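User: Sorry, folds how?
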Amino acid sequence: MSDALVAAYDAVLFDLDGTVYHGSQVIPGAPEAVAAVREHGAAVRYVTNNASKAPVDVVAHLRGLGLTAEAGEVHTSAQAAASVLGERLSADAQVLIVGTDSLAAEVIAQGLTTTRKTGPGVAAVVQGHSPDTAWADLAEACLAIRAGALWVACNVDATLPTERGLLPGNGSMVNALRSATDTEPVVAGKPQPLLFQTAARSAESSRPLVVGDRLDTDIAGAVAAGVDVLAVLSGVSTAKDLVHAIPAERPTHLAADLTALTQRADELKIGPRPGWEITPGAALTVRGDGAALDLLRALCHAAWETGVTEVRADGDAAGAALTGLGLA
């Protein structure tokens, strides 16, 4: 379909957690949506802030969920963090690892050496998500950072979407070290634009589209990279978050999940929508009838234009739609 959203782009850069899957459970329709992107001739890239797995392991996980993937299509925050370290440190410099062995392997691939214990030779600390990170790991990192080591965080996501719900992410562990060291890390992953820029270059893309669920990472990273972004409601960010989004975290399109990639682009774009009338004032007064997601697209447009984020319904249909969106 020539007017489908995906038809306007030469590559689609997918976030994973909360967009393609929740832990071990695939989000319904994700395999078909990725297949449709390939059928349209657009390149596929998987761009994840999760630094716990090597690209080959991400590929194995995706294939196990019914998606097609190759290692060269995967871009992780561990790779981004290792790249930052490679640029800032001299060859063979020692890096203290807080994270998985796959993170350590990315650092070694940059010509650096790794350790799990602090000491006078530690030049940097790199911190990525690992379910096995313990107090002892944070203690070693704390000592190194306080001694002046460069601190690079793969990402600062406070939570991690899983099939059980939201669990502590790397950002929660980063916050523990922030408190203990009174220091700010260099952040390598989203919302920094590096991951998206690297993924787009690898696809030789001049017009990529980002698809993600989290405003403060996926959407903010896409905005920083200067590319269009489809926000989906299958993960962390909610309708309320979208209405209140700051300029640096505002998507161009909005949908329930990534199956919308084959829908008409003009139906997904943030802006006024047929069936809904929104009148600004002390609050945004909603009247009319139609799809709830259309109302959300229109509300985002009105809130971002006026700065008014309180909403109220005029009529039963509007009230039901706002309730369904969690905005009543």
About this structure: Residues 54 and 102 are 5 Å apart (CA to CA). The longest strand covers residues 43-48. The chain has a mean pLDDT of 96.
